[in-house]
Amino acid sequence: MGEKLYYVYKVIKESQEPISGKDIVTALKEYGIKVDIKTVYSLIERINDFYQCLTGKQLIKTIRRKGFIVAGDYFEDGELQFLVDNVISNSNLDQKAANKLVNKLLLLSSNNQKDRLYIEKGQHQDLTFDLLVNLTTIIKAINNQRNIAFKYVSYDIRDNHLIEVYHTNGNLNEETYVVSPYQIIVRNSIYYLVGYFNKRKDSLSVYRIDRMRLVMNYRGRYEDVHESYDIIKEFENNVNMYFSNEHIDLTIIFDRQVIREVVSQFGKDIEVKKVDKQRLAAKIYNVAMSDGLIGWLMMLQDKVEVASPESLRTNVKNRLTTMLEMYLREN
Q1: Secondary structure string (H, E, C) spanning the chain
Q2: CATH number of 2-70
Q3: Rounded distance, CA 94 to CA 101, Å?
Q4: 231 and 183 in contact (C-beta within 8 Å)?
Q5: What is the pLDDT of residue 187?
Q6: Which of 232, 176, 170, 173 is nearest to 206 (CA)?
Q7: Which residues sit opposite 158 in a β-bridge?
Q8: For residue 331, what pLDDT is reported?
Q9: Which residues contact residue 331 at a Cβ distance below 8 angstroms, ignoring those fewer than 6 apart?
């Protein structure tokens, strides 16, 4: 019965136009399924009953004197476009993994909905890891309170090319780390694992999941000491490029041309006033002082100026001076 349900749904979904019960019977024969038209109607009713319970919507609708269509797509067009775009643009997925995930998202979509979407071909590079497999392994290990073993990579140069090399501070052997995992945290589209590594007994350790290789379950004593720590604080203490314990009240003067960049960085709930015809001043409270913030300010070049605090203004000025000296230096 399950096979018949699937192929009735498949035939209707793949039809560009409403398809009649008679044509469904004919199409099913191509899959080796022989049923009469009453059975087709019964199968459609069962599909709709199940989908109604699952989503509160009707999946297959009848168009009078024309036939049946899949009208109740699981995702709205905008939702599906957003999800597909984020999969395709994710640099931590290779082409195979991205295609597999996109196909899953499209599984309950009609051909008409697929035709309405704009699906780009991603420019995915070949990767030496599978982020989705790593995440699955780690999530299950956290849930089951099981250790994981993995190798952790950095980079070196060989024959004028960057290559991956394994860190050599492991606790199982020189290259293999065994960690009791506690929590996955996402920052700026990067996945981090916070866990206990017994070579650092007085703190928790943080690992970028996209730099973990050969992740697998590992039998051994699971060290459940996470309640002794503030996991978020431990994370922020370890990952300090974009996050800092120091917070400032920031005032910037910026060109109207970059107003969207300012809103993207700080949101709309900031104080803004007009300086002159072309420039605006914004006051942003409680901003984390970090290299990430400084990098963002320098990226906008002469379109943004730090007005205060003076310490940040001096920091940016010193970095710009150092960069200028570097480029003025004779090779």
Answers
A1: CHHHHHHHHHHHHHCCCCECHHHHHHHHHCCCCCCCHHHHHHHHHHHHHHHHHHHCCCCEEEECCCEEEECCCCCCHHHHHHHHHHHHCCCCCCHHHHHHHHHHHCCCCCHHHHHHCCCCCCCCCCCCCCHHHHHHHHHHHHHHCCEEEEEEEEEEEECCEEEEEECCCCCCECCEEEEEEEEEEEECCEEEEEEECCCCCCCCEEEEHHHEEEEEEECCCCCCCHHHCCHHHHHHHHCCCCCCCCEEEEEEEEEHHHHHHHHHHHCCCCEEEECCCCEEEEEEEEEECCHHHHHHHHHCHHHEEEEECHHHHHHHHHHHHHHHHHHHCCC
A2: 1.10.10.10
A3: 11
A4: yes
A5: 83
A6: 232
A7: 161
A8: 65
A9: none
Residue ranges, CATH 3.30.70, the chain = 247-328
Strands 271-274 and 304-308, how do they pair? unpaired
Ranges of the chain with pLDDT below 50: 241-242
Say what the pTM is: 0.71
pLDDT at 240: 57
- Among the four given CATH numbers 3.40.50, 3.30.70, 1.10.10, 3.40.190, the one describing domain 247-328: 3.30.70
Q: What token pair was written down for 152?
A: 């952790």
Residue 214: predicted pLDDT: 93
Cis bond before residue 181 (omega within 30° of 0): no
The residues near 134 (Cβ < 8 Å, ≥ 6 apart) are 209, 212, 215
pLDDT in the model for residue 242? 47
Burial class of residue 36 (count of CB atoms within 10 Å of its CB; 0-12, 13-18, 19+): exposed
